Amino acid sequence: MIDFKLPEVGENITSGQAVKIAVQKGVSVKKDQTLLELETEKATIEVPSPADGTIAEILIHEGDTINVGQVVMKIDDGASSTTQPTQLTQLTQPLNSTQPLNPTQSVQPTQPLNTQSAQIETMEADVPASPTVRRFARELGVQISNVPGTGPEGLITKEDVKAYTKHILTSLQAGSLLSSSVQGEPLPDFSKWGSVERKPLSNIRKKTSSHLAHAWATIPHVTQFGKADITELEELRKKYSTPDHKLTLTPFIMRVVAAALKQFPQFNASLDTAGNEIIYKKYTHIGVAVDTENGLLVPVIRDVDQKSITQLSKELTTLAQKARDKKLGLDDMKGGCFTITNLGGLGASYFTPIVNWPEVAILGVCRAAMKTDFRDGVCHPRLMLPLSLSYDHRVIDGADGARFMKWMCDAIEQPFLLELN
Fold this sequence. Notes:
Blueprint lengths: L1 E4 L9 E7 L6 E2 L4 E6 L4 E5 L4 E6 L6 E3 L3 E6 L36 H8 L10 H10 L17 H25 L20 H16 L2 E9 L1 H10 L9 H14 L5 E4 L4 E4 L5 E3 L1 E3 L2 E3 L2 E2 L7 H16 L13 E5 L18 E5 L3 E7 L2 E15 L5 H15 L9
Parallel strand pairs: 12-16, 16-17
Antiparallel strand pairs: 1-8, 2-4, 2-7, 3-6, 4-5, 6-8, 9-19, 10-11, 12-15, 13-14, 17-19, 18-19
Helix pairs in contact: 2-3, 3-4, 6-7, 6-8
């Protein structure tokens, strides 16, 4: 019998919500078959079976919040096994409590000491940790089964417990400080004036809210506006679009941005405030914001500078569909250098996008419109594209922003230099 525990599903992710249980008690499953869908702060993830077998017991329900290391199912793999001791009832306050913890104090027990002592003796045997490490975890208020082990065969060490505790405490304290600075006054009772409805935030919406609040609160934003003549570019886009695959404007903009990042490396950087350094990246990975019914997601396309317009278009289409289908993996949204958000299809004229921390710049693409251009006394209709460039003023000066915008507009107006295939 296998106690199937929720595995690590991504960096800094300690829990998630079970939005769908894909199997039932008594059914046979194959290794790597999806057992449940887990919604985390960043994405919805399919959690696979570790082995062939039969689902003997399901210990969670849809909608439950489950922690990494928590037993969620029991799988009968056909192998003989001894009966596992019952799982230890949690002794202390969970570390994912909304109340920040004082790192100099341990959490006080919630049950009498004699009851806890009896429970300690029934600690589940399959948690790979020594008695000393288990005792150390209890003293810190940590449930040992939640701690990822880095030792041989997943052995949990004292250093693992320290690292896990430090991460949780830092996250809680940072979240408390941030929320206290941006929440402001409490809301009034809106029901006094009419009917209202309350809906809980999804995990993705919660993460988006906290991420953008952090970016807005910590980054001094400046937004630079510009317009690019895309008359020739639009003709090129239509020429190479096919009924099976319609080219959009975004992959063209991506290639221009990739080239601009090489000319202006301060836009392909991150600010390390702790070390008083600027980190310059030698790669060119660009995130593209995708509007989904679950919230805003930003899949990242890698090595944009090394790919053709056609390649970028196909990859962007695939990732955007994965985002809408809740199939994005965590790695699909990591490692971006710069973000593009295109609201032109929704009719936006101008807007001020928020920098996607830890990046230092983001480009907003708006709706193109025909404008009159007078040259040599003659009126020429031209298709003009409004652009909005927001950047971190700690890293990028206004003059740099103006040069970056002008360089991009000049490049966009010469589409014959872009590699289509």
